[in-house]
Every structure is written in C-alpha cells, then in structure tokens.
Amino acid sequence: MLWRGISIEPEWVVLALLVIAIAMGRGRSFIADWGPFLLLFFAYEAMRGFAAKTGFAPHDLSGLELTLFAGQLPTLVLQHAIYQVDSVNPQDVVAMFFYLMHFPLPILVGFYFWIGSREHYRRFIASLLLMAFIAFLTYLFWPSAPPWYQFPEGQVPTSQVVHKILNETVDKFWGASYFVSPIYSHLTPYPFAAFSSLHAAFPALAAVYGWHRYRVVSLVLILWSAAVMFSIVYLGEHYVIDALASYVYVAAATLMVEGFLRWRRSRRPTSARPSA
Length: 276
Known about the structure:
This protein is an all-alpha fold. The protein has 13 helices and no strands. It has helices at residues 10-23, 27-51, 62-68, 74-82, 90-100, 104-116, 118-141, 147-150, 165-173, 182-185, 198-210, 215-234, 240-267.
C-alpha cells in the first residue's frame, strides 16, 4: 500500500485480520469483539473534526520546547541536519512509514493479544479507547499547533521554517494520485490535535500491555516508540513535549482501566468456603 500510494487505514487492516480470524475458525468471536471497538474508534475519528468547530485558539508550545532544550528546537535541528527539500531520502521514507502506521499498529498488536487472550485484548482496547477520548477532550478545550503550522514558509525567516515533510514526501512520490478512501476523505481534518501525541502514545500503551505476557514483543514496541518519537519530531508533526506528555496519558488510561477492573473483581461475591 505504501509502494502504490494507498493510504493505510484501519478498515483495510481489519478486513485482512477478519480473513485470518475466519481461517482460524474464530470469525464470529472476532466480529463480536472487534465490532464495538471499531465503532468507537471511528466515532473518535469523526469527533476530531468537531473540535475544529469550537473556535478555541491553538496554543503555541514552541516557547516551552525552546526552554526545555536550551533555546534549540529539535525539529529544526533534525531538519537542518538531514532533510533535503529537492530529493527523497531514506530517513524521509522511514519516518513516513512509522507515522502512517499510527492506526494499523495498535490494531495489529490488539489482534496478537486477541489470539492469545480475549480478556487481555479487551483490557488493552479499553485503555486505548479511554486514552483516545481523553486526548480528544484535550484537543477540544486546549488545542495546540504543531511545529509545521507554527513556523510556516513565508511567515518566518528561512532558517526557522519547519517543513511538513510528510506532505512533501507524498507529493514527491505520488502527487495527486495518492489514494485516500471516501471514509476518511469526508472526515474533517483537525491540525491542532498535537498535544498530546497519540502517535507516540499508541505504541507505548501497546508496550505496557505486552510487558508481562509478551516481553519480547514489548521490547520491540519500546524500540518502535523511540522510532515514532524521532519520526514525528523530524517530520514537523509534533514537539518532543507532545510525545512526553502522551506517556502521562498512557499511564493515566492504564491506571484507570486496571484500577476499575481490580475494583470490580473485589466487589464480586466470593463463593462460600466448604465446611471442614
């Protein structure tokens, strides 16, 4: 799909996984477990467009980023060091890959969890959805501008321009032939959903839920999270603080879901102990 210029969207990944589930003889349980998740997942996507209509002005986090990094903007440092406007380089393609795998990755990890344990899958998905909707509330009431928006060409000195490398790379490869399905092309995009970064949060949450049951997978996901952080900063889509804040959202969602489940288990009546 990347090679042919087709947008990697959740519905294509889920359809492929449905075929696998049917081949495993678990088609019905797949539909029962994944149907509600997909409904809420697409609801979240649709609701992001609603945030664009609230009228809240986006916040500029560049000052905080500059303070955190002693007057340096990591996005500008990376782009000045390795980005070439007139060509497509390996780092552009790699960063684009990690960025576009934003939605497929948690679905693939969720499927891996689902094969091993439906209960473990449900806990992971519950945390994922809770985190997404907490982030939506942030975008709704406290929107923030990404680096590419804050430092656009023509409005800041050339040395301070942040390139939107993702769009530039897509144009260099495919131009107008890049395919986005009608499902997504009709959703209202929202450029101010930068803080916190769900691109950074999704693989981090997957790593948390894989740690005890799938240690090797979790370690791979930790490395994946590091690659995502590099990618979103290099591409100009997020500040580093967006990614760091997302880990707080990961912790909050995990603690709330796991805490609720422990509380619910503690409320269940225990069976009577057998007499001696």
